[in-house]
Amino acid sequence: MTAESVRARLERAIVARLREAPDGRPRREQLAPALREALAAERVAVPSGELRELERHFDDRLFGLGPLAALLRDERVSEVMVNGTRGVWVERDGRLEAAPIRFADDEEILVLVERLVAPLGRRIDLATPLVDARLPDGSRVHAVIPPISLAGPILTIRRFSSRPLGPDDLVRNGTCAREMMDLLVAAVRARRSVLVSGGTSSGKTTTLNALAFAIGERERVVTIEDAAELRLPQANVVSLETRAPSVEGTGAVDVRTLLRAALRMRPDRIVVGEVRGGEALDMLQAMNTGHRGSLTTAHANGPYEALLRLETMALMAGVDLPLPAIREQIRRGIELVVHQERAPDGARRITAVMELLPDRRDDYALRAVAA
Questions:
Q1: What dihedral do alpha carbons 347, 351, 355, 356 form, nearest 10°?
Q2: Is residue 272 within 8 Å of 193, Cβ to Cβ?
Q3: CATH 3.40.190.10 fits 167-368, yes or no
Q4: How far apart are CA 153 and CA 110, in angstroms?
């Protein structure tokens, strides 16, 4: 009899025992005794070392993330991507690679997605086929199912380091040279407002978090994010997170609303995880009205393009402001643009640090900052 067939028999026996729970809701703590009973009933002898491995296997299958659990236990894996039944990909040490895992059908993936989002009070179904959520350990989950996805259920889990990276860590990782990091830390301490730009997965949030380490211990910081990822070491930090609408379409709280609320919390600095739309204008207003030294990120292909995108997002705010007025807000609000890119080898590096000169009247004048 093969090991697979033995495990299949044990799983059936365990599931039967778990279903005998008084309230009909199996719990994790019931797994160990159910496994021992199943082993005795099936007359299977297992050494103590293998017993722990077997218990973890069934815990992953019945309560955890099944075959994905082993991938997420690998500290080198930062992202897991399930492309329906076509395969699973991981980002390991900054590089994409195929994982030796395939799901038999869509239902198996849907069970995992439900297992992830249900405890968070979120749902995913035909009426709500897309969900963003943050797990208790800080990992970010994004799932899309048919009819939005044409390739079956798509699940992406982005993990974060067990501890937040500081400026010294970025130097050790090769993100930038010591001289450049010292310059950026000095700029944050001098309350210069910084915009970190870059593409998807270029390390913007990691760099933003590291720069925020330089904010003084006596300063009050308010962070605003779609999914809370920032972890700052200061004691006086208030973290705000947006909220998606309920099934009835009510109760949504966006970044703009949180920015306005933050201004009433007496912040010394405001850190916005990312600006994507009209909240860019609110962020610029804050930078121009006594909250110097605030930090944020934006998707862009370069420092100059980041400023162009910032003005486009500000125009999305629905406020009837002329473009020259918005550009003046940007020139007076943003002082440094830090651009970051991901190299083909997976390494994230700061490729440019530009200073925005405020005296240009018709366009943006950028000057490279020398370390």
A1: -90
A2: no
A3: no
A4: 7
